[in-house]
Amino acid sequence: MIIVLKDRPPKNQVDQLIGWLKGLHVDVHVSEGTHHTILGVIGETSVVDTAFLSGLDIVESVKRIQEPYKNANRKFHPEDTVIELGNNIRLGSGSFEFMAGPCSVETEEQICLVAHLVKKAGAKILRGGAFKPRTSPYSFQGLRERGIKLLLEAKQETGLPIITEIMDLSQLPLFEDVDIVQVGARNMQNFELLKELGHIQKPILLKRGLANTLEEFLMSAEYIMAGGNEQVLLCERGIRTFETAVRNTLDISAIPLLKKMSHLPVIVDPSHATGIADLVKPVSMAAAAVGADGLIVEVHNDPAHALCDGKQSLNPKAFEDLVRTVDQIIPYAFRWKERKEDNESR
Description:
The protein is an alpha/beta fold.
């Protein structure tokens, strides 16, 4: 349920209304916009008398929401969520950031070298896999705890925040100093893991499952947010279709749709979406053009000899070219977004 309050309502009346609602054993989320304050009511809202609410002096309108996701719903939270890391990194609402690094952390020399190179090219966040979910049990599974230690060494050298993937609840203590925790596509519906991540206060990058709808995707984000952690980044990384020419099929329409359905930032992974290094740049350009808030790109200093996903990894020079090209598109993308919002408000 959404309760839209009139402009500048008296604080004591708002507090009384919130107290009354909580007395009905529902949760109330307050979102303050430029002109209106919105109360998002979550829980068993059938006990709430909408006629009574509509008659209150401070209430402009009351609406029941049909979508099962509430916290992630833009109707509950009209303003874009912005996630900040440090003093100069903002994810969401007009900011565009690059996350880059190797699919897998291999050695100290490799991860530190790549960290310096992607930072020089324009990346603000270092990605790297310590725990690697692989289809074959015989493939390289990552350096695990040592991989996280090497990522932290690269962070100390370069100052770049780090993002890496968690695969199991038992690994959570190892992620204490990790800046962004990544939940991979295979774990998008690992609900016990998502619930636990809802209790930590750090950003979670949630990847869409290989065959999941956008509503299912947002419901997974809801699991995290219901626990109290509202710092969720949605990551479109391609879905599995009948096409075999690429590793996955990037659902480009999902980006503007997610921005319409939810207030959460949307990041795109062009590396896993295509599985082909030559396609990473054009797909990145398309993602930026339709309003993505950032990219997470696989970059390796020697892709031909990478222990994991070398075929989809860019070399540092190619990544530098990608950043330079995408940077030219971003201003036009957000200009288009502003025009669209102006038209909708008329």
